[in-house]
C-alpha cells in the first residue's frame, strides 16, 4: 500500500466526516465541525493531517489544536498542541499498515507543531496501549491519567441508585427548590454561562478561552445538534451552567461553571442529573466526564465526579516537549501569574 499525505485544501469534507463517523473510535474532536471551531477561534490554530492510500481513500486522520493564552510575542510561551483522542487509523488495515499510517501522521504533526508550539499532548479517550511504543519512538512520553464514564444504558432508577447518598440528596433538594433546567436556545444567553465560567476558572487559577470560542461552538456545533448549553435557574437567576458535546453514542462533559454563593443549592448536581437523563432518553450509551486527574494525586474534582456512580478508567496521556528552554520559562511564568491572581 502506497501512502501519501494530503492537506486540508485537498481533502473531501464529506469523506472526512464519513471516515470519522464510521470509525470504531470516531469522536467529535476529529470531525470537520470541530476543525471549523478551532479555525474560527481567537488564539487557536487547527492542525490537520490526513493520509490516503494509492486509491486516494482516507486511511488516517488527525485533528489537533494549537492554543495560545495571549496574542503577540508572549503568545509563543503559552503555545501548546493538544489532541483529544488519538489519530484515527482505518479499522480494517493490517497491523503493519496501521503502524505505517500512525508514524506518518505523528512525524507530520511534529514537523508542523515544531514551528508553532513548545509542547504537544495527546489526551487519550480510548485504549492506545498497543501503539504506545510508536508514540515513544516519535518523542512522546506516557503518563497515567484518569477519566470517569457513566453507563447511560441503565434505567433512570439505576442511575439514581448508583449515585452516592449525598448526590441523591443534593438533586432532590434542588428539585424541591423548584430549580429549572434551561437549554440555551439563542446566543444571547451564552454571556450568562460565560460569566459563571469566568468565576469558576478564576477560583481554580486556570486560563479560560475568550467568549468568542463559545459563540463559535454555538454556530458550528449547537446548530448541528452536536452540542448544547444548559443553565440552572433558581428564582429567575442563572446559578450554574454546563456545555455538553454529542456525537454518535457518547455525551462529552466539556465545560462547567457556577456562582459561589449558590453552590449550596446544588446547581451542578441538578444539571448533571438532567443531562444524564436527557442523554439516556435520547439513545446515548455513555457519559464521558473528560478527565479526572492523575492517580495517587489528590484531586477534588475527581472526588466530586466519582460520586455520580461512574467507572474510573485510565487511558493516560502522551507528552512531547518540543522546546525545553521555553517550556521552563513558561512554567515559571504560569506560577507567577497564578500568584498574581
Textual characterization of the structure:
The protein has 341 residues and is of the alpha+beta class. It folds into 2 domains: 4-145 and 316-340, Aminopeptidase; 147-314, Aminopeptidase, CATH 3.40.630. The protein is built from 11 helices and 15 strands.
How would you sum up this structure in a few lines?
This protein has 341 residues and is an alpha+beta fold.
Tally of structural domains: 2
Q: Count of helical segments?
A: 11
Q: Beta-sheet strand percentage?
A: 25-35%
Q: Count every beta strand, where a strand is a DSSP E run of 2 or more residues.
A: 15
Structural class: alpha+beta
Q: From the alpha-carbon coordinates, what is the Rg to the nearest angstrom?
A: 21 Å
CATH architecture identity of the largest domain: 3-Layer(aba) Sandwich
Separation, N- and C-terminal Cα atoms = 54 Å
What is the average per-residue confidence, as pLDDT, rounded to a whole number?
Answer: 93
Shape: globular
Assigned CATH superfamily of the largest domain: Gcn5-related N-acetyltransferase (GNAT)
Uncertain spans: 336-341
SSE pattern, N- to C-terminal: EHHEEEEHEHEEHHEHHEEEHEHEEH
Helical content, roughly?
A: 25-40%
CATH class of the largest domain: Alpha Beta
Under CATH, the topology of the largest domain is which?
A: Aminopeptidase
